[in-house]
Design goal:
heterodimer; A: 2 domains; two-stranded antiparallel sheet; 12 helices; B: alpha/beta; Rossmann fold; 6-stranded mixed beta sheet
Chain lengths: 270, 259
C-alpha cells in the first residue's frame, strides 16, 4: 500500500520537475519530442551485438539531465523499476547463444552475453530518454506536441485524460485498499475474492465518473474537440537543438566511431 | 430581462433503469432570484438540476429558460445561459492546467484568443484564484478546487448559475468565503444543498423536494420554521435557528450568532 502511495507521489514529482525554467525546458516541446524519437529509433536500430556503438548515445540523456536539472538518483530509481522487463527479455540469451564472439585474454565472451548487454544498454538508453523527455517537458506539453505533429485527436485526448485521472483513480483505489486493510484481521479478507469485488467497484465508480465528466464537458459546450490556447513557436535555438542532435545521432549510428578510435589507438601502440 | 425566467411545467423523469425520480414538478424562477433546493438524499435534487441545462431531458412536461424550451436543438443556447457547477470538482476540472480548464468553455464558444484570455482572467479574479492559473487541478486543495470549478462556469458569463452542494467538504472559513462570494453575484442562483444555514444566508426563497414532488415552495424563513414539514422531508431547522424565537432569527442572519 505504501508502495502504491509512493509511486503515485513520484509521478507527481516528474510533473514538478517539468515546471523548472532551464534553457532545456524552454525549448519547443515538438523539438524535444522529435529529437527523442530520433534518438530512440537510432538506438533500437543497432544490430544485436553492437555494444560499443551504443556507448556514445549516453551523451544525450546525460546532457539533458545535467542541463535540465533532473536529479540523477530519481531517474536511476525509475529505470530500475522497469529494469526487470528488459532483464527477463535478455536473460536467456547467454544460454541460447554460446558461440564465442570476443576473446578477452583467458575470458571467452559468448554472443549471448554480448547481446544481453546490448539489450540492457538499449533499454537503459530508451527508457531514460523517455523519462527525461517528460521531466523536462511535462506530459501535457508532450501531448500538445503530439497533437500539433498530427497525431489523431482521439488518441491525444485518451492520453490527456489517462494522465489527469490516474491520480484520482489512484486515490480512490488507495482509499478502498486502506478501508479493506483496516477491517481485515489476521490476513483474513485480503484474498482474491475481496480483490475481485474491489476491482469491480473501482470499475463501476470509474464508469460513473466518466459519465459525470462527460456531462460536465457537455455543459460547457464540448463538441468533440479540445481546444487549448497556447501558441507554439519554433525559434532558432529549437532548430539548432534538433539539427545538432540529429547530426550527432546520425554520425554515431552510421559510422563505427568507437571501433575506429580503438583501432587508431591500437595502431599507435604498435 | 424576461428571457432569464426559468419555467418548469409538470416535469416527469425516470432513469433508464426505471427508477422514478421526478413526478410532476412545476415552478417559476424570475431573473435575479436566489433559490435554494433542499430535500432528503435521493429526493431528486441533482436530477432536477441536470434537467435545467439539458444534461437530462424531460420524459414529459417542459423546462423553459426564458422563451426557449430545453430540447436537443436548443442545447447550445441553453448551456450558454445556464452554468452548472457540479458537486465534485474532480468531475469538473479535467484539463491539464487551471487556465486551460477555465478557458475550455470560452474556446468551445469560438471566442477569439484575446477575448478568451479576458474571460478566463475575469472569472479567476472573481473567485480569487488568479494565482492558481498555471497549476494542475489535482494539486489544489478542496477549497481551491471548488473556487476554480466555479470559475470554469463563470468564464462562460451565464445568466443563471446552478450549483450542486457548493459548500460540501469545505472547512468553515472557506465555506464562509464561498458564501460571501456568492452574495456578490448578480446571476440568478439556484443552489441544491443540505447546508440550511447557507440557505438562510443566501436564498430568500426555498423549494423543498420530497420523493420527486415539490413539498413546499415559499419564503425561506417561513419554511425553516415549519418543523412538521422539515421533519417529513428529512430536514432540520438550521442550526442558527434552533433555540431561537422567530423574532430573534431575523436579526441573527447578519450577526453570525449561534444558538
Amino acid at each position: 500500500m505504501g508502495a502504491l502511495e509512493n509511486s503515485l507521489f513520484n509521478i507527481g514529482y516528474l510533473e514538478t520537475l517539468s515546471c523548472q525554467a532551464t534553457p532545456i525546458h524552454r525549448l519547443d516541446p515538438r523539438v524535444k519530442l522529435l529529437t527523442t524519437l530520433g534518438f530512440i529509433v537510432a538506438v533500437v536500430s543497432f544490430p544485436k551485438y553492437a555494444v560499443l556503438d551504443l556507448l556514445p548515445f549516453f551523451v544525450y540523456p546525460v546532457a539533458l539531465v545535467a542541463l535540465g536539472h533532473v536529479p540523477m538518483s530519481y531517474l536511476a530509481k525509475k529505470i530500475l523499476l522497469a529494469a526487470p522487463f528488459a532483464f527477463f527479455i535478455g536473460v536467456f540469451n547467454p544460454l541460447l547463444d554460446r558461440q564465442t564472439l570476443v576473446q578477452l585474454g583467458p575470458l571467452a565472451l559468448s554472443g549471448g552475453w554480448v547481446s544481453f548487454a546490448a539489450i540492457l544498454l538499449k533499454f537503459t538508453l530508451t527508457v531514460s530518454a523517455a523519462l527525461v523527455l517528460v521531466a523536462v517537458t511535462g506530459f501535457n506539453q508532450v501531448c500538445l506536441a503530439l497533437q500539433r505533429l498530427g497525431m489523431p485527436r482521439v488518441f491525444v485526448l485518451q492520453l490527456l485524460f489517462l494522465y489527469r485521472y490516474l491520480f484520482v483513480l489512484g486515490d480512490e483505489a488507495l482509499r478502498m485498499v486502506r478501508a479493506r486493510a483496516l477491517r481485515s484481521f489476521n490476513g483474513r479478507g485480503l484474498g482474491l475474492g475481496a480483490y475481485g469485488s474491489l476491482l469491480g467497484h473501482l470499475l463501476l465508480r470509474t464508469l460513473d465518473r466518466a459519465g459525470r465528466l462527460h456531462q460536465a464537458m457537455l455543459s460547457r459546450g464540448f463538441d468533440g474537440e479540445i481546444r487549448v490556447l497556447r501558441p507554439l513557436r519554433l525559434r532558432g535555438r529549437d532548430a539548432a537543438f534538433f539539427l545538432g542532435w540529429s547530426a550527432y545521432f546520425g554520425l554515431f549510428r552510421f559510422y563505427h566511431i568507437p571501433q575506429a578510435l580503438g583501432a587508431g589507438v591500437l595502431e599507435l601502440i604498435k | 430581462m424576461s428571457h432569464h425566467i426559468i419555467e418548469v411545467e409538470d416535469l416527469h423523469y425516470a432513469y433508464p433503469d426505471g427508477t422514478r425520480v421526478l413526478n410532476g414538478i412545476a415552478f417559476t424562477i424570475t431573473h435575479g432570484e436566489n433559490v435554494a433546493l433542499v430535500g432528503a438524499n435521493g429526493a431528486g435534487k441533482s436530477t432536477l438540476l441536470l434537467q435545467l441545462n439539458g444534461c437530462l431531458l424531460p420524459e414529459s412536461g417542459r423546462v423553459r429558460i426564458g422563451e426557449v424550451p430545453v430540447t436537443k436543438k436548443t442545447l447550445a443556447h441553453i448551456r450558454r445561459t445556464v452554468g452548472l457547477v457540479f458537486q465534485d470538482p474532480d468531475d469538473q476540472l479535467f484539463m491539464p492546467l487551471v487556465f486551460d480548464d477555465v478557458a475550455f468553455g470560452p474556446l468551445n464558444l469560438g471566442l477569439p484568443p484575446d477575448e478568451v484570455e479576458r474571460h478566463v482572467m475575469g472569472a479567476l479574479a472573481a473567485v480569487g484564484a488568479v494565482h492558481l492559473k498555471d497549476r494542475p487541478p489535482y494539486r489544489l486543495s478542496g477549497g481551491e478546487k471548488r473556487a476554480v470549478a466555479i470559475a470554469t462556469v463563470l468564464s462562460l458569463a451565464p445568466a443563471i448559475l446552478v450549483m450542486d452542494e457548493p459548500s460540501s467538504n469545505l472547512d468553515p472559513k472557506t465555506r464562509r468565503q464561498l458564501i460571501e462570494l456568492l452574495k456578490t453575484f448578480e446571476h440568478t442562483l439556484i443552489i441544491a444543498t443540505h447546508d440550511l444555514d447557507l440557505v438562510l444566508d443566501l436564498c430568500p426563497r426555498t423549494l423543498v423536494l420530497k420523493e420527486g414532488r415539490l413539498a413546499a415552495d415559499g419564503p425561506t424563513l417561513e419554511i425553516m420554521q415549519d418543523e412538521a414539514l422539515l421533519a417529513s422531508c428529512h430536514l432540520e431547522k438550521p442550526l442558527r435557528m434552533q433555540g431561537w424565537s422567530p423574532g430573534a432569527v431575523a436579526g441573527a442572519g447578519a450577526a453570525h450568532s449561534h444558538g
